[in-house]
Design brief:
With 279 residues, the protein is mainly α. It is built from 11 helices and no strands. The radius of gyration is 29 Å and the shape is extended.
Length: 279
Amino acid sequence: MSAPVWAYLLLTLALTVIISETWALLRDRQRLRAIRRMSPGPPATSRLLPLASRLLSWYQRDTLPYRLARAGHPRFIGETPAHFYAAKLLFGLGLGLRFGSHAVTAFALYAAVGFMVPDVLLILATRRRHEQILQQLPTMLDFIRRTLAGPGTLPDALAALPDRLTGPLSDETRRLSAQYTLTGDLARCLGDFAARIGMDEIDQLCLALHQAELTGRVKTILGSQADAIKLRLQADQKRAAATQANMLPAVSILVVANILLLIGLPLIYQLTADLQTLR
């Protein structure tokens, strides 16, 4: 070969190596960011957080960490239990002082409402996160079933899962894979995984994986579960489409009524004014 051809080949090989190494570095950084998001992080230096923890440490002491995990540790109200307690204090005192400062009873009522606002926000965040996980769950079940049907093992499937999923389920499976690699205790890792998500479908999945070595029917169980979840998602989509179709006539009538009001009221007012002027 001539010298320019060798130069092109070497340049192509060098670019391939550079792109491959850059891609691997980006993937490692993505994994590190995901692990940092799942970790509680360093303790905050604000004086309000320790005070709130001392005052409200009795409130759901055992279940609160899992509630925050199921909601995805939302910022400002759910990063740590201390943040959640501080948010309850701020909402309670803020609403009480803003709307109930004229009477003790009103202050207590609005403070109680504000005290429960972070719980409502946590419930909404948990529901939204569960919907995202449910959308990715059939992909997770199909991949585990295909991996176990071939020469792959369960650790191999868990290690490869985070790269094939998106959203909160990818972060949770990455945490599950890391814990299982470090401890080797599948039952404990699956129990923590199920408790952090808090869904019946995940509980059934963990039970099937835990019994895989005993029964050998994990592929059948996962296939049935994946089909059931797909049917549920299809039913939810049909229900949402039917709801939108039923609401469309009502929305159309409301839009027409609003247009008539916006156009008709000024005309009626002008006509009334003209009649009064003629009289």
